[in-house]
Structures are given as structure tokens and as C-alpha cells.
Structure to design on (222 residues):
């Protein structure tokens, strides 16, 4: 038996006839029931004996629909030949063949059974570095020693102020406002240059920032 990847080559336009499963007692009509799907072979998986079919979607923000098919349910398969050179001809039926599967432009790009577009190794490595950086940043926002309420307050402040870090079990906002446990508005204070709690409510921009942080903490504590 040929491998799935040989029977269903990637980027090949195919029409698959599938045997429909039925939970009702088997009858002649139910046994003969089939459904037909047309699409581009996206990939195959020998381990799960699956075929992945890709179809384009219209009138939606999603770009495509992916269908995973058990290869054992395929009772018939047909490779649809599309001549790329005839796509621009007025009497060509290629657009009808591709309707609901992919755009003409996409098919021209990959070709029938062709190769995928070149992938930039540098771009992939940059995406990987960015993903790792974002993951590490997300982990730094979680304090295992803080209470659930404290973590909730931290998340709210981070969303509103952006520059928020943990300092032990205290929350440091904009590098000059500290929120100590149990994380109420009364626990918010300005930080002195020595790192301790400052007296009073501050003035100018510091006082305004402190008031804003207190309001956020109060709202999050409700």
C-alpha cells in the first residue's frame, strides 16, 4: 500500500468521496451514504492515518477552513487537473474548479503539487526569539508568593499602567508607587528615593499618579 503522502500529495487539488458514519442500525441506504469534499491537500499524517484538507472561506474574517479526514473513510479520490496557463482565458473553467477551495492567485503561487513559498530562516528565528521574550516577560508577571487578590491587582495595574513589576510581595508601579499587602487603596504610597514609603499624598504628577493607582486598586478590589 502506498504511503499517504504519495496517494495525497501536498498542495494537490483533490475531490474526496467519504463514507458517512451512522449511529443508527445499518441499512442499505445508510451504508451507501457518502459525501464529497473538494480542497487542497494541506498535509497528511501516517501515525493517525489522517488527511488534512484546506478550503478557503468567503464572507468571514477567517482565511481558511481545515478539515481532518480519516483516510479509512475515503472510498474514492480524484485528482483535479488545473491548467495554470488557461486561467486567464475567458472560456476557462478553472475558476469554477477552484471555487470554495482557494483563490486563483494562491493557486498560481503554489502551483498544482508545487512547492510552498520560500521561508526566511532569519524571520523565523526572530519570531522564535520574540515568542521566548514574551513568554519570559509573562512569567515575570506571576508572583507565586502573592495572594490571588494581589495577583489580580497586579494584572489590573499592568493593563492600565504598563510599567509594573513585583518587588517581593509588593507591587511597584511606574517605579515610584508601591502597593503593599493586602493590596487595598490604603496600602498605596509614594516611594522615596531610599526605597521606603513616603509620607503624605505627594504633589503634582506624583500625586496624580498615586490617586489614579488608588482608584484602580479600589475598583479591582470590588
Amino acid at each position: 500500500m502506498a504511503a499517504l503522502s504519495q496517494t495525497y500529495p501536498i498542495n494537490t487539488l483533490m475531490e474526496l468521496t467519504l463514507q458517512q458514519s451512522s449511529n443508527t442500525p445499518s441499512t442499505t441506504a445508510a451504508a451507501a451514504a457518502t459525501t464529497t469534499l473538494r480542497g487542497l491537500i494541506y498535509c497528511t499524517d501516517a501515525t493517525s492515518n489522517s488527511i488534512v484538507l484546506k478550503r478557503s472561506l468567503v464572507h468571514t474574517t477567517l482565511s481558511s477552513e481545515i478539515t481532518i479526514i480519516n483516510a479509512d473513510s475515503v472510498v474514492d479520490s480524484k485528482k483535479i487537473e488545473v491548467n495554470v496557463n488557461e486561467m486567464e482565458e475567458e472560456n476557462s473553467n478553472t475558476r469554477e474548479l477552484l471555487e470554495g477551495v482557494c483563490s486563483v492567485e494562491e493557486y498560481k503561487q503554489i502551483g498544482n503539487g508545487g512547492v510552498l513559498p520560500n521561508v526566511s530562516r532569519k524571520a523565523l528565528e526572530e519570531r522564535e526569539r520574540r515568542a521566548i521574550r514574551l513568554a519570559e516577560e509573562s512569567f515575570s508577571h506571576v508572583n507565586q508568593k502573592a495572594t490571588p487578590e494581589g495577583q489580580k491587582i497586579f494584572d489590573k495595574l499592568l493593563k492600565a499602567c504598563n510599567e509594573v513589576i513585583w518587588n517581593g510581595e509588593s507591587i511597584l508601579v511606574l517605579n515610584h508607587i508601591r502597593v503593599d499587602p493586602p493590596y487595598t487603596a490604603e496600602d498605596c504610597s509614594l516611594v522615596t528615593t531610599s526605597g521606603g514609603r513616603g509620607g503624605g499624598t505627594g504633589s503634582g504628577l506624583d500625586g496624580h499618579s498615586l490617586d489614579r493607582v488608588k482608584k484602580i486598586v479600589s475598583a479591582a478590589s470590588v
User: Anything to note?
Assistant: The CA atoms of residues 178 and 185 lie 11 Å apart. The two ends are 65 Å apart (CA to CA). Confidence is low (pLDDT under 50) at residues 24-31.
